[in-house]
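The instructor's notes for this session suggest beginning with a concrete chain rather than abstract definitions. Hand out the sequence below and ask the class to guess, before any prediction is shown, which regions might be ordered.
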Amino acid sequence: MLTKRIIPCLDVDQGRVVKGVSFVNLRDAGNPVELARFYDQEGADELVFLDITASSDNRNIMKNVVQSVSEQVFIPLTVGGGIRTREDIRAMLESGADKVSLNSAVLSNPEIIYQSADFFGSQCIVSAIDAKKINNNSMFSDHKISEEYSIDSSTKWEVYSHGGRKPTGIDVVKWAKYVAKMGAGEILLTSMDRDGQESGYDIELLREVSNQISIPVIASGGAGKMDHFKQAIELGKADAVLAASTFHFGTFSINQVKKYLDDQHIPIRKTY
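After discussion, reveal the predicted structure:
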């Protein structure tokens, strides 16, 4: 049986790790290089680095910061934010990333997942989906995706782009099926409603997406208690669980989470 992964996330803004609630009210959480080194030593299974304002600011990801982080870790590193082209992907992989996370770029260039997965391999391509419970007044759309993926009367969650700043008019479950079909190796699924709330992952969202696709799903948004990790895996069918606030601010350690999951008979990579 495949082990479940515990993944801390570094949301980086202007070279500093930050954390907010539902993507707003950001507060400083530390130096990304120092935190990367700490989590590597702590026994994290992977690390995610997201430049959260690169897309909204229409700039490239900070390559020098990515390179400095990659030099500190010996676990898989996923990098995202402001990655728009195959050349950007190559630059990140050459800077030390093992995978790249694509979100806003796919909405403006739907072929990038297929093209990049075909060129670099699906194992390098993570599709990040920022999901928010549907607001029936939100029908904004400037993407180039077929109407068959648009929200309708049955839609429960809408895809947001540009670091959670823009509603897209795209149905989350339909979109997850699309990116999986196009060659994404896994999906990083973030509940914007639960992000930073520490009230638990959106189990219904996780379960509905996981049931529709065969590639791994990383649960993101809402971890606050040990049991939340278990629920995401057992009830939400997540293959990995990602957290930020609870790790950054010392609510509990990665090893504490792993020990708890091991005691619950959930397969993990033991590092304690």
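Then share the key points. DSSP finds ten helices and twelve strands in the chain. The chain has a mean pLDDT of 89.
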